[in-house]
Amino acid sequence: MTRTDTYDTDVLVVGSGPAGGSAALLLATYGIRTLLVTKYGWLANTPRAHITNQRTMEVLRDLGVEAEALAQGSPSQVMGDTVLCTALTGEEIGRIRSWGTGPGSLTEYASTSPCEMIDLPQTYLEPILTTNAAARGAKVRFDTEFLSLTQDEDGVTALLRDRIRGDEFTVRARYLIGADGGRSAVAEQIGLPMDGRMGKAGSMNIVFKADLARYCAHRPSVLYWVLRPGAATGGIGMGLVRMVRPWNEWLLVWGYDIEQPPPSVDEEEARRIVRDLIGAPDLPVEITSTSLWTVNHTYASDYSSGRVFCMGDAVHRHPPSNGLGSNTSVQDAYNLAWKLAMVVRGEAEPELLDSYSAERAPVGRQIVERANLSRDQFGPVFETLGVGADSDERTIAEGLAALRAGTAEGAKRRRLLEDAIQLKNYEFNAHGVEMNQRYVSGAVLADDSPAEHWLDDQELVSRPTTRPGAKLPHAWLVDSAGQRLSTLDVVGKGEFTVLTGLSGGVWEAAAEACRDELGIQLRLVRIGDDDSRDAYGEWSRVSETPEEGVLLVRPDGYVAWRHGTAPETAAEARDELRAALRRILGR
Question: For residue 216, is it left (φ>0), alpha (ψ between -120 and 50) or beta?
Answer without folding.
Answer: alpha
